[in-house]
Structure formats: C-alpha cells, structure tokens
Amino acid sequence: MNIENARSMLDGLLSRARAKGADAADALIVDSTSLSHAERLGKTEQLERSEARDLGVRVFFGKRQAVASTNDWDTAMLDELVERAIAMAKAVPEDPYCGIADPDQLFKGTPQDLDTFDPTEPTPEDLIARAQAAEAAARAVPGVTNSEGAEASWSSNSVMLASSNGFSGHYAISRHGVGVSVIAGEGTAMERDYEFTSTVHCSDLDDPADVGRAAGERAVKRLHPRKGPTVKVPVVCDPRVSHGLIGHLASAINGAAIARGTSFLKDSMGKAIFAKGITVTDDPHRRRGLRSKPFDAEGLPNAAMNLIDGGILTSWILDLRAARQLGLESTGRAARGVSGPPSPSTTNLYMAAGTMTPAELMADIDSGFYVTELMGFGIDGLTGDYSRGAAGYWIEKGEIAYPVSEMTIAGNLKDMFLNLTPASDLVFRYGSNAPTVRVEGMTVAGE
What we know:
About 25% of the residues lie in helices and about 40% in strands. By secondary structure, it is α+β, with helices and mostly antiparallel strands. The chain folds into three domains: about 5-35 and about 50-105, PmbA/TldD fold (2-Layer Sandwich), CATH 3.30.2290.10; about 125-220, PmbA/TldD fold (2-Layer Sandwich); about 225-445, no CATH class. The strands form four sheets. It has a six-stranded antiparallel beta sheet. Helix 3 (about 125-140) packs parallel to helix 4 (about 210-220). The longest helix has 17 residues, at about 5-20. The termini are far apart.
C-alpha cells in the first residue's frame, strides 16, 4: 500500500460524505496479499496467491449510521459508494449509541513500533519446501500410515483508517505458518493428530521438520484409546484447548454482551471470578504479537490491561458504542472490517503462567482426565453451562496412563474459573493463550 495515496483516497471519501450532508464519517482500507501451498503424500494439491484491496466507508446522519464497501477503486465507483452509504443511513432506524470518537479521545503521537510486519515475502519454492519438510518428518514417524496433508502459508495486510474527527493512522501485519495433519494405525484402529506453527516473522517459525515430528508422535500416542469412567475428577487441559477457556471469558465480558444482559458474568464486575493470584491480560502492544496493533479500529489509544487481576474481574471489553450503553469509557478494544461497524474484541489475550510445571500440577491426581482435544460447542453464554466432547489421556497416580476418546466433560464456567490452576508452561501460539490448566471437580462421562 502506498500510504500517501491511501490517505488521500480516504480523505477524498470523507470530504464527499461531508459535502453530501453526512454529520460524520470514517473510512478504512485493507490491502491484503496471501500465498499458500498445500500438499498431500508429497504431491502438490494447491498453490494459490490472492490479492485484495478492500475499502469501506461509514457515514452518520444524526444517530443513524450505515456502512458500504467495495474492492473497485474507480473514481465513479467511489462516488457511488458514498451515495449508497448515505441513502442507507437515511433509511435505517436510529441508534442512540453510535458515533465516532470525540477529538480529545483519539490516539495522538507516533505509533509504537510493534514489529508486526516482516518485509520478506517468501517464494512459492520456500513454501513448498516448508510443507514438504513438515509432511516428510511426520510420515517418517513409526506408526504413521497416512497423511491428511501439510500446508505452508504467508499473508500480509496493510490497514489505513481515517475519520472526519481528524484521525488518520496506518499499520501493517504479516503472518507465516506451517501445519500438518497425519493418521496413525490401520483399519478401524486409526487416529489423527496435527501440529502447527504461526508467527509474524519467518525467523520465529518452528522448524517445519520439528512440527511434522510432533504431529506424527501425537497421532501415534493416541492409538488404541479406551473410554474412561463416568466420574467427577480433576481435568487437566493441554494448552491446545486451555486457550479456549479464556476465549469463553472474553465472550462473557464483551461489552456488547453485557449491555444486552446476555452474559453469565453480567453482575460480576469487581468480584473474584478466578482463584486469588490469577491474572488475565490483554496486550495490543505485545512485540511481534499475532494480534498487535498501535491503536484500535476507532482511532483510540490502546494499552495492556489486566482484565482479571488477582482473580478479580476489573474491566469489560469495550468499544465506543458498548461503553456509551454502559455509561463507561471505551477501553480501546474496537475491531472492524471494511463491511461493518466496529465491535468490542480482544487483541493478544493471555492467562499468566503459574509456578508449577504440568507434571507437578498432575502429581497428586489419583484419577483424572488430561484433555488434548475438544469437539462441539456446548456452551450457554447466558448461564455458563459447559458440556463438550473430549479426547486425550487418562491420568492415574499422577501420570499419563492411556489414551481415551469419545468422552464428555461438563461443568459450569463460573465454577471452572474459580477452581482453575495454571501451570508454568505459557507459550504464545494463538491470538488467545493459556498454559496447561487444572480444573477441579468436573463431571467426566465415558463408559
């Protein structure tokens, strides 16, 4: 993206909107490029490149707003885009909480260098070599009998936001990734598993061969599973699934859900919802973070904040609209695409590591369930009731004993949060991250 050209284009859109009577407007450009290679059993299945330049404009007439978007940047099309957005805004019902930021709320100054962009674009040959190395290493693991394929990818996104309140800002993000999924065993005794690595900079990727070996070893380890007993026991969640628990937390403290009254945590502000000492942080300024950004999607400043501090819920996740509904100030957590208005969202969300290793966390468990995979989405956001299909390993006398599958774990997220203990193995692999966690007293259903 040519930053000056993009800024000039957005300024032109805003001027058109104001000239046609809009009280306020903002506009967003997202310039994206991606390249991906997928192979299976050593043969190329796809090699794709895509490029997109998308633009969206939001206009306000009093307390009415509308968004229109396009990927056609022809001058006549942009004129039509503004006309369409204005016609829509005049026709929709009023929203008393919509509106852009006041000038004194805006981010000012020079954006912090978050190192979110790797300027080196890989060649197709680079991606092919990464995928081949991952799949070959996975298939070389004894016991692996088939492959669901390997993929290597790269993407680059450049974002420019401007608003009639005077805000203008730009940032760029990149992503490199390698993943592989393989099958172990034969006939009716087959199991699959996967591994992946995803980073902002290519230099931070795990070795593709290590990724492949890990996928193969995981698949083989899952062979010949049993059904565990139906019992109430401690459940230990591998980081591949524990990060989902703080994702449920984020949904429950999202300002939009709180304003609607549809969250099981709507009355929990300032209360202990986790054990003492547990901290959950959202950090948009994490260097090389997968979701880092220097300002939010409404041009407001953002900063790291502890949503859970010492077990206490300290803040909702708020954009301007949700904050106005609740009579609060935005926490700088607006996110948006070109075709819709902003909404509250987290950035780099994580639960702080505990002091015990995963082995120490399990050491006193006489009988329990180590979960590595969850299926389905049996979560009631209104009550916190939780029930999901699960697979993993049974724990006996503090050790992993044997693989189990076709299990169900159930509880209520309020109880689960209060009875949760994190291990010390926090690694940043997703947008939301958590270490291995132990949850006491969950209901496990098997045989």
